[in-house]
Design a protein that fits this description.
Blueprint lengths: L3 H9 L5 H9 L1 H14 L5 E5 L5 H7 L4 E6 L2 H12 L7 E5 L13 E4 L11 H16 L5 E3 L2 E11 L2 E2 L2 E2 L4 E3 L8 E3 L4 E7 L7 E9 L4 E17 L4 E6 L2 E12 L4 E9 L4 H7 L1 E6 L13
């Protein structure tokens, strides 16, 4: 019998089948970003912990410099696959793949870097924030010392009003969509600039509830029928170059239950609330938009002729 957490993990996508990990391995932006950030953050001889190791690839990146890597994975099938893959690669012997729950596991010794990539757009579905906050409390109690470096270091989340096409060969279906950030989508019209609604710094304590109400000035006439959620992961802050190593999740477009007609210059108010790691449906149920102030139309003036 599955316990409550295992049931929730299956429902929210924690037990991701191996074939879907292939997509993550094929994502060059994700792979290159994490490899660069890990290479920067992990110093020679460091001790590293990865929470939610999947195929073990991020632990393997760390093993290039680390003296020891603890790779924690909850899915027993992925534990076996990670061990198999690491055995095929140099430095794989430095990675110990451990079948354990990231909410409960603590390493047998202090570590220098913690890698955790349980990331979904908006910090939904997966347990990134809750796992790290739980880990920080337990780690401080056990080792009574400074916390390790976390990778990602921070997350910036933003939201943007859209007019989104939902007709599929004549079939109207307002559904949640995911879009590549580099793609061009003729059916997507941006009606205002994005607005940041939360910044997560994993070196600081973080709340698990995101409740936001904000205003947008509409850029063009249209029907606000969806909101785009943007999640930018700051994988590492490169202080000596005053830059960051980033990874941008695909855009997530969530349809509004009640679309709103808006004109250029209108002030649109948007609100929502959800819990980190919660379902997309919970966000969608709370998502609201309304025109707070209508644009003042200027009276027509005939041009003056000399």
């Amino acid at each position: 019998m599955l316990n409550e957490r295992e049931i929730e993990s299956c429902y929210l996508g924690q037990f991701i089948p191996l074939q879907y990990h292939h997509n993550m391995l094929m994502d060059q932006n994700r792979m290159h970003g994490f490899k660069s950030a890990i290479d920067y953050a992990v110093k020679p001889g460091a001790k590293v912990l990865e929470l939610g190791g999947g195929t073990g690839v991020l632990s393997w990146f760390a093993a290039a410099k680390a003296s020891k890597v603890y790779c924690i994975e909850f899915n027993p099938d992925m534990v076996q696959e990670a061990r198999r893959f690491l055995a095929l690669n140099p430095n794989g012997e430095k990675v110990e793949v451990i079948h354990a729950d990231a909410f409960e596991y603590l390493p047998p010794e202090p570590v220098d870097v913690v890698i955790c990539e349980m990331i979904h757009v908006g910090m939904l579905r997966e347990k990134q924030v809750e796992v790290i906050e739980s880990f920080k409390r337990r780690y401080a109690e056990r080792f009574d010392g400074p916390l390790p470096i976390f990778l990602p270091e921070a997350v910036i989340m933003a939201v943007q009003p859209l007019q989104q096409e939902y007709d599929f060969e004549g079939f109207h279906a307002p559904i949640v969509q995911f879009q590549d950030t580099a793609g061009i989508y003729p059916g997507t019209v941006e009606l205002a600039s994005p607005s940041v609604y939360s910044i997560i710094d994993f070196n600081q304590p973080n709340e698990l509830i995101y409740a936001w109400q904000g205003k947008f000035v509409v850029d063009r006439n249209g029907e606000v029928n969806a909101m785009r959620f943007v999640t930018k992961n700051i994988l590492a802050v490169v202080q000596d170059r005053s830059t960051t190593i980033d990874w941008l999740n695909p855009y997530m477009t969530v349809p509004l239950a009640t679309p709103v007609q808006a004109r250029e210059g209108d002030v649109l108010q948007v609100s929502f609330q959800y819990r980190a790691g919660g379902s997309i449906a919970s966000l969608q149920a709370s998502l609201r938009a309304e025109v707070l102030y209508e644009a003042v139309l200027q009276p027509y003036r005939a041009p003056a002729f000399a």
